[in-house]
Amino acid sequence: MEFIEKQKVQVLSELAETDRTLAGLENWTQQTAIGCCLITSASAGEGKTLLTACLGRLSAQFHNKRVLLIDMNWHKPNLHNCFGLIPEWNLKNYFNEISIPDFIRSSGIPNLDILTAPISSNNGGNSSAENSRTAERILRESRELYDFILVDSAAMFPTNRYMVDPVILGNACDLVILTVLTGVTPRQQIKRTQVMLQSAGIKVAGVVVNHWRDQ
């Protein structure tokens, strides 16, 4: 029972921190008309997808915005699993001029929609540059439809030839949130990521530290 109670405390604490993060984003939005935020990290497995899903849910439920979550981690998508969805669209249909609204799915939560990653294996063999340009176009079209967009991206490192580049996406968004896993992410990797984003002229709103324990 004690273990279960500790888990409950941890979950409630993480939800409170997520709400605090959202409050910060709301403040940025009011001051600078921000409509699109990218979630990325230095390495994989640091909680980007869960943070994206939680921020989207809270924003839609309690802040009365039309919110779209976009999975642009096309190499290893996972956002659809948070909402029990199965990816169904592919890039071939998109290139055939079928519009983005045809691919957007309801999350089951009022005001919250999802654009999953495309189903094509490695996106038809397209290079990282080709995928990144396509993702930019999709993002531009999506911004015309929603009040607020949260983008779940790939990690900055390691790179691969099929990924959608978070740096390119960061320039197409209004700001970036960097997630870090306590005790796991090397500090040099975090610094390298931050420098790369800022050198590209990208606004880094802040860092969300997952599994933080105050010693």
- Rg of Cα set: 17 Å
Class derived from helix and strand content: alpha/beta
CATH topology: Rossmann fold
Number of helices: 6
| Domains (count) | 1
Largest sheet: 7 strands, mixed
What would you say this structure looks like, in words?
With 215 residues, the protein is of the alpha/beta class. It has one domain (34-210): P-loop containing nucleotide triphosphate hydrolases (Rossmann fold, 3-Layer(aba) Sandwich). It has helices at 2-32, 48-62, 91-95, 128-143, 166-172, 187-199; strands at residues 36-41, 67-71, 105-109, 112-115, 148-152, 175-181, 204-210. A 7-stranded mixed beta sheet has the order 3-4-2-5-1-6-7, sandwiched between helices. Helix 1 crosses helix 2. The longest helix is centred in the N-terminal third of the chain and has 31 residues, at 2-32. The protein is globular. The relative contact order is 0.20.
Summarize the structure.
With 215 residues, the protein is of the alpha/beta class. Helices cover 40% and strands 18% of the residues.
Keywords:
alpha/beta, disordered N terminus, 40% helix, Rossmann fold, single chain
Write the layout of secondary structure elements.
Layout: H1 2-32, E1 36-41, H2 48-62, E2 67-71, H3 91-95, E3 105-109, E4 112-115, H4 128-143, E5 148-152, H5 166-172, E6 175-181, H6 187-199, E7 204-210
Parallel strand pairs: 1-5, 1-6, 2-4, 2-5, 6-7
Antiparallel strand pairs: 3-4
